[in-house]
Amino acid sequence: MIAISCSKENQQENQKELEINITKTEWYTSISDRGFGEVYLNIEGNTNAELVTIDTYGDGLAGCYVVKLDKNKNFSEKIMILFHPNPDTLPKKYQTYVNAYEKSESPDVIDCRTGTGNKIRKLIESGYVTFKQRD
């Protein structure tokens, strides 16, 4: 019979608590040449995760954007979160989730990569923004 044990210290080294720190969020809108209302997010921060994604939407179609992390796991991205085919001038709030994964084991060719291990999600919400009509 073989007995295997591990100390509490070793367990803590192998199980890091995921963190994601968002230091800047800026929401803005635009109207494309085709008349679509587009909602954008400028976001900056850092993490200790291996993979970070941000949920995106296109008139009800869910997707995700894989955030590029530098060697220190900082990020700075400008991405389109969603679009509407018929923008209006009513002020609205928008939201999305930032997802952080402990490990990144999905192939790069998949649009919405996911990770394994621990995962955390942070909800980010805009203030009221409107689509500005072109002059």
Question: How many distinct helices?
Answer: 1
* Count of beta strands: 7
On the 0 to 100 scale, the average pLDDT is: 82
**Rg estimate, integer Å:** 19 Å
The gross shape turns out to be: elongated
Q: Provide the succession of SSEs.
A: HEEEEEEE
Structural class: mainly beta
What proportion strand? over 45%
* Sheet having the most strands: 4 strands, antiparallel
Distance between the termini: 81 Å
Strand order of the largest sheet: 4-3-6-7
Helical fraction equals under 10%
Could you characterize the architecture of this molecule?
The protein has about 140 residues and is mainly β. Helices cover about 5% and strands about 50% of the residues. It is built from 1 helix and 7 strands; from the N terminus they run αβββββββ. The chain has one helix at about 10-15, and strands at about 20-30, 35-45, 50-60, 60-65, 75-85, 95-105, 115-125. The strands form 2 sheets. A 4-stranded antiparallel sheet has the order 4-3-6-7, with no helix packed on it. The longest helix is centred in the first third of the chain and has 7 residues, at about 10-15. The radius of gyration is 19 Å and the shape is elongated. The termini are far apart. Mean pLDDT is about 80; it is low at about 1-15.
Give a summary of the structure in a few sentences.
The protein has 135 residues and is mainly beta. It has one helix at 8-14, and strands spanning 20-31, 37-47, 51-58, 61-66, 74-84, 95-103, 116-125. The chain has a four-stranded antiparallel sheet, with no helix packed on it. The chain has a three-stranded antiparallel sheet with strand order 1-2-5, with no helix packed on it.
